[in-house]
Amino acid sequence: MAPRLKRTQTTIVTAAVAIALLYLGVFVFDAVESVTAMTVALNAVITPWVAILAIGALTTRSYDPVDLQAFAHGIRGGRYWFTRGWNLPAVAAWTVGATFGVLAVNTTLYVGPLADVAGGVDVSTAGSAALAGLMYLASRTSAHRSPILVQ
Fold this sequence. Notes:
Layout: H1 7-28, H2 32-59, H3 65-68, H4 88-104, H5 124-143
């Protein structure tokens, strides 16, 4: 946002702006349904990635802190570089999970075509996480190596 601000200051400013926008939306414009619907949709898209990261964290025995920060320092390569910087099995699993999540969302503003897959229960978040997690685990198992630890 502002290059001269420190990370803590930027976080505080961003949080203050987000809270102000939230209160405006809820109390001034009465946008509770819109905020809730967007939160459900975002959860359906973000949760599969969280599942993939959790699987990586649980199945990896050690991390290289220098290589974890390589991208932040503008360095290419290292333990986590994968295929031109992309972990293709993880991206594929996330894409499948997120697509299912968006198609299964059931809110007051948007109902996906798979919304009734569980008899009216919104399974967009849990289903997207399970699908992405299972697909990522299968890709790790079939490769007989840990994509997280590619040298």
